[in-house]
Fold each of these.
Amino acid sequence: MMHRSALLALACGLGVFASSAHAQSSTTGATASQREQVGNRTTENVPAIPEALIDQLNRYQNTRGALFSGWTQEGCVLIGTRFAETAQAHRVCAPLGMREQLTFYPEPLSSLQSAPAGNDGFVFGKDKGGNEFWQLYWFDLKSRQTTLLTDGKSRNDSPLFSHDGRQLAFTSTARNGQDSDIWLLDLATRKSRPLVTEGGHWNALDFSPDGKKLLVIQYVSVNESYPGEVDLATGTLKRFPVDGGKAAFGEFRYVDGGKSALFVSDEPVDGKPQEFRTLRYHNPATGELKLISGHIPWDVDALEVSRDGKRIAYVSNEDGIDKLHVLAWPSLQELPVPALPVGVVGGLGFSPDGKQLALSLNTATSPSDVQVIDLQANTLTRWTRSEVGGLDSSTFVAPTLVRFPTFDQVDGKPRTIPAFYYQPRKPAAGGKVPVIISIHGGPEGQSLPTFNATTQFLLNELGVAVLVPNVRGSTGYGKSFVQMDNGFKREDSVKDIGALLDWIAQQPELDANRVGVMGGSYGGYMVLASLMHYSDRIRAGIDIVGISHFGTFLKNTESYRRDLRRAEYGDERDPAMAAHFEKISPLNGAKRITSPLFVAQGRNDPRVPYTEAEQIVKAVRGNGQPVWYLEFSDEGHGFQKKSNSDYFGAASMVFWQQHLLK
């Protein structure tokens, strides 16, 4: 599920830190670079940002969204949104009512969850400088006091309340720093204990209504998970059998008072393999197994059950478009719901009485906002109205879904790859428009038609088209598609970008001589690999926290992530795979990267360490290329502070102006 992910005005940031700036010339590789340090920001070869561009970007960089995080006891909604530098907790108690900010931290919050009846407050996570060693905190809405719940050292996330709000399950590395165990906390005594210590990565999914059992799951890879149930009194773990031996699982929820369960899985049905993760029902006592969403040939990405157990809601991801379904339980009668705009649905939550369903709704032309459905009246009410910087939202561009042929075939016909295509409203002055290919991370992820202020700026202010492909390895298109880039097939996804370049050359409105590519994390690897193979066809690229060598990445990523990444990329301890990493590494192929490159990195990144950025910058500069480099000392895997994100956004626009548009 998507993921999940940030932004002080650039001029203010420069004003605050101007007196501390210093510049020096440093030599890295064969090319001298101009280095400047301003507060927490270090740049090399990045020119000054023109004031006119800062002004032009200002409104786009002051858009914001609101994410639903639960109902409070008095019927308000808890939301996460940003009104200063970072995303914080807020409360809204009426449709389009005042937003009351509750937390005021310099670091952004994560894992924001409102407690159910029995505890008037919420839990949230917070790390330091993007290092992702989150600590969990309790915020009491009556006293307005905050209490640390975890040890202050380990990595803690995925909090889950029991139905009565008295217990909290969460994932933690506290035991040995490597395995992600499930811990159980008594909120009255604040005492916690390890509950599941089987090794690997575990998450809690649902408490039984009586608070005596817990549904849990061990995640191995996007294609392999193992569910089970824990008796909280004895700690006994009962693993559920997996049809076919290996399968992907999504949400699990108790129904029928805890006697049965709803779950999302791609296990075989009647012995027939399944491509998609569908919603299913199982009653262990009777052995009844029922397929609920089998009529929808797409993944189910979200599932929620009302507290009284009388309604269920789920979201199907249909070719990148979310569809909401609400059913009466146990009749499975489909209940009418208001039509939702084309977009992405997240944060489902039934009200305590089960009569309303809150959700976050994001579309390509509007940032996330909280909407509430009255299930009896079948009405949709907007509870938040997030700003779009004072811009005219009617000028925002929605994409069209296109499919382009790639290098291999399916049933004797060329395989096609989906992409969201954003076209500028204004015709190009010279007849053809430049284009930027934006590649998602993961690779177990999916680009969706969500609001992106940077994309809208490129379209409306710079006249640049944007293509957002879901190359092989993306989720949302079946398990076979997800597995097509694993291990030794890694560069097949890069070939999909080559096929997209061919498609661009065939579009009369696009300028195949002015193509840029950008991406973050695994998408950053894709940028570097695409430049390595297609520098003659790509003008420039921006790599954000990207992998430059899978071998060094696996060696240096945090230990709690290493086995999870080996399942996708391959095991560097295998000599054959290690040799393959050497062969496909952009670091080793840096001499073939001859297009201008901009590398951006957070110093505290636990996923893709900053050394991945430093080594590719040094290697490409060996070609005589004056690579732009940007590093923030208070960020991790991406830029979550507004001032940092704003600066990076502005520097990116200067980069495109100089290397793509001219």
Amino acid sequence: MKLNRRSFIKSAAATSAIAAAGSIFPGISFANWKRQDGSIGQVTWKKTPCRFCGTGCGLLVGVMGDRAVAVKGDPNCSVNKGLCCVKGYHSIQALYGKDRITKAKVRKGGKMVEVPIAEALDLVAAKLQETRKKYGKDSVAIYGSGQWTIPDGYVASKLFKGCLGTNNVEANARLCMASAVTGFFTTFGIDEPMGCYEDIEHADVFVTWGNNMAEMHPVLFSRMLASRKRRGNVTIIDFATRTTRTSQAADKSIIFRPNTDLAVANAICYEIIRNDWVNWDFVEKHTTFHKGKTNIGYGTEDHFSFKDKPESITFEEYKEFLKDYTPEKVEKISGVSARDIKYLASLYGDPTKKCTSFWCMGMNQHVRGTWINNLVYNIHLLTGKISTPGNSPFSLTGQPSACGTVREVGTLTHKLPHGVVMNEHDRKLAAEIWDVPVSNIDPKPTYHTVEMFRALDRGDIRFMWIQVTNPMITMPNLNRYRNGALKEDRFIVVSDVYPTPTTDVADVILPATFWIEQEGMFGNSERRTQHFERIVPGPGETMSDTWQIIEVARRLGFQKQFPWSEENYIEKIWEEYRRFHNNPKHNMAPYKVLKARSGVQWPFVNGKETRWRFNAKYDPACKPGTDFDFYGKKDGKAWIWARPYEPAAESPDKEYDFWLNTGRVIEHWHTGSLTRRIPVLHRAVPESYVEINPEDAAELGIVNGEKVRIISRRGSVVMKASINGRGVPPRGMVFVPFFDESYKINEVTLDAFCPISKQPDYKKCAVRLEKA
């Protein structure tokens, strides 16, 4: 296209303006904004949730032609109110990495060869069918993600559980949110937080339980800081195992020894009762007391199974149980002073203060993850600080749809979209909606994530389809599971957008569309479902994960169950899925409502969102005449649990004398397969590192930037030391972010897990350090 003088001047002016805006204004990021001919076109803006964490920030993506060229926060989204974090502002650049997978590949003669995607899908269907016939229905599995869209997860569950008859469906949210789920179920009988982000503007006290919110959920943390600045009487407590950016911004930082949060939570409850800070009216009307099994193991052996046996106890028996958790006794266990424990209890116990507790992986990636969730709920239930504005125990989510696609759709082995496979009524409803015989749906769960990869290693599973996740980096005790995937007579299919260590072990690689190259929905931490349309086309032969599954399902003969056309399949899937939740406790908004808004909270009843559940003032599912109704339990009462402190599965000793803790940094997300392809984020933190306490470093003769070998009983990794960086662990601990595939820290971690939730503990294992 040739430009005349007028067009050239106009284009040059626009180019200068956009370049200036991108460098000056923090609220908007421009990229890829020139046409191939060098001219500037009209930018149109489309709404979408952010692709990264589970906060669910709303974005507006600027599109020019068929390319995304700019990003800004969506001011109409109540989550972020126009603000984004550094990842959100640069998110669209993840669409345009030079090594995007745009063609299907199949392993032939030991080498990956490009083939038409139809041929690759034919092979996937043929190998899936062949494996089932040869080894049985439970020899095939699909492993997905909290990055799956809701339609992705829904069709995966429908195909495998409804049509193929296997419950071998899991998602990587088992690695990050399962303990939140089981904590909620065991206390309330139903899943997902009762509060919402609006709690932030009402709360007087925030306690972040093992959660570096400043880096993990920065937009929500900024709302906390803004509330403190605006109101002046807000207190933020950082309760953590290392000093972080959250610690620096908090009013007080309290450091505890790993796994001892259990003891501290019990000590807080002890103090609440001792000082008569109990909300007796609430407790007597709305709670009951229970205990379960103790000394329940750590899940390190194959075929591990555990079933809790809850027993009712009296308040007096619960009070007696807490006598082992006086602040003075717990100080010796936890390293937290009795004075600080009493201070925490006084904040929760003050009837004039509204308290919100936030947590994420620090509590959930825990060998007693269910228990510590229960114990924090105990604090809120004893004081009645729950289900009202500003009073919220709130589990935050790590992935954009870990709630929507995993917890709501039910992409875990025991789950169905509305219930569990063990329940006959739930199976019958699923069979009716899916149009399959009820006998197709197996009443027995099969393998949770860790056991699924153990089954792949053993050979019980021979075919695995992996979508939207990178388990060859994220699995704990990684060497075992990578070696298992590479064994003979295993067939691995991977759907992804970039090459990863997981595509390295694949027999078939399917090119996937990414985020706004497809239509879909996510579900965030506060029960908010967020729709996004197909904003730009995907490159090459990329295909959405949803449509890949549909194509394979049809090749397997399930055309009747997957009848949709490419023009409207998302709407049709959504309206079918809504039938599972057609009740006041979980009703989902219609497709047209989702499409029009920047997210809608469920339960969505009579055209209204429910902001606080279990409170009759806000929740239409509560029984008439009640003030609170915890309707997940038959009697409408929440359970207060007597759960003891127990040590971690593996603790430091003379040979391995350091704790290893792993996590994230603000610039990168999960395994870095997206954020490391965003130049500005990669330049900011180009490689991983190990944080070492400066006193430990001095004792070992290690200086900043020097290479260090981290060794456990399972493996080792060499990386550079970070001393007095953004985070500082206490003496005897090191911390490693896991975003860098060049440093596979999960070769070092332990695959122990919470016996109830089956979620692994990435925060605690024993290592030693050597100068490399």
Amino acid sequence: MAYSLRLVMANLALGLAYAGSGQLGLLVPFSGEAVTLVWPPSGIAFAALWCGGPALLPGIMLAAAGLNYLNFGDPLFALAVGVGNGLPALVAWALLRRLRGHRPLFDGVRGLVAFLILPVLLAPMLSASVGILAALAGGTGLGESVASGWTSWWLGDAMGVLLVAPPLILATAPGALSLIRRRWREALALVLAAGLLLWGLSLPQAVWLHEAGRLALFCLTLGAGLRLGLLGTSTYTLLVAAGLTAMTAQRAGPFASDSYHTSFATLLAALAVLAVAGLILATTMATLRRAILSEREARQQAEQALTRLRQTQDDLVQAEKMASLGRLVAGIAHEIATPVGTALSAATRLANDTRGIEQALAGATLRREQMNDYIDGTSLAARILQSNMERAARLIESFKHVAVDRTRQDRRRFDLAGYLEEIVISLRPQTRKTPHAIALTGASRLTVDTYPGAVAQLVTNLVVNAVTHAFPDGRAGRVELDLRGDEQGWVELRISDNGSGIAPDQMHRVFEPFFTTRRDRGGSGLGLYLAYSQVVQKLGGSMSVASTPGQGTCFTARFPAKAPLAATGDLPAPPPPTPIDLAAKRLSA
């Protein structure tokens, strides 16, 4: 019930608007009594159907029939014209909905072309044909030939759609007034300029001033198209057209001449050019504006996605660091448990033997043989305690240095060769169960001022990667850490193995994050990427890889002995290092 009432009220309001605009159009007849230059109701009819659908068609037809009956008194003519005025709008609406669907009509060049062809050029042919036939049947005067009357009727309806429909349709779009609100000063200035220009052109002027006025109006419309968008341009064009039509009807303005028909024919051509040019320019600007906004939005979304990706990557890298540290802690704990357990057993045995000696002394039953056995057992227990505690202390010291450095990002001065030895010791729990040998060669002492945590992460990841991936057939292998320094203050650390090597098609991807050939076995693909990022970003150096399938792989990290304060990327390639002949040493895993 409420919907029906709203529909009736909408048809009533539409009928009043249609009849009012039609009465204004009839004040400026062009051919006879019923044909005008611009018929605004045709634009109102199409805009109403496009926005509200065929349910508003009764209001259009009844208003058109009533208007023509009141003005010409012929009911058959009025009824035919009423049907003829509603039919073009319905046909244009149906065809455009088929072509455009529910997309906005003026959302690009295709929509504008469809609007200019269907409702502006083709649909008015129906109303012109029905109207001329009704005029001939009812005896209404055309004032000229049938062909001229049909052409005038068609042009009048086409101009009504071209000038009136766009601002009505665009005004119903969401956010239609946002651009005009932002640029209201420019809109007001353009309206005032057009008003002053029209007022000046209404005065008796020379012919050259009329020509200049036409050019000025065209330029103002183009300015509206550049700055005010589609709605502002179409509304501006409608206001200018209304002013020019009123002036020409009074035989004034830039298009007035001695012949009434010539004046309006010239005005018709000028308004058509003005309206089409304004719509084309405004549509082009709107398309460019949407493209710029889409590009900006896409760039923002890409930046946000990149930020989220980097955050996720940082989180995964941090998780990989903590997982690596967790494996180190678990291995060290397991490794320390053996000497501590052995020492505890020896201490327990020593305590039991001591209580036995105390009891023998208290009972005066202590024998020489028993005392000698106690002394021998105590000496053995002391040696066992000493050796196992020294082993545990060494493991704890190595773990303390490496683990603390990997959880902190402090920069300090230290001996890199000795630090590499501590890292290898801390990795022994992870490599003990493998048949591989880990060797340290090159410089026996090399002082650096850099980030030990980054070095520990680099060496740990590369050694564990070699032990895990380089020997898939289970054979015994060798992993070698070769440390060198040159006179230019650069350090070269090579970590090589004699394993299976890397496939040539995978060489360019080894440092990519998340690239792994063992994802089915829990590989994350972050180990080599993390090692690479530590060298490039933290140590301020570069990293490369060389591999021969079946012969092994060599990772080479080059970085300055004194790290830069803020290393953010690859540094220029340093000169080739000068080999230093230093004594080599080896640590077996």
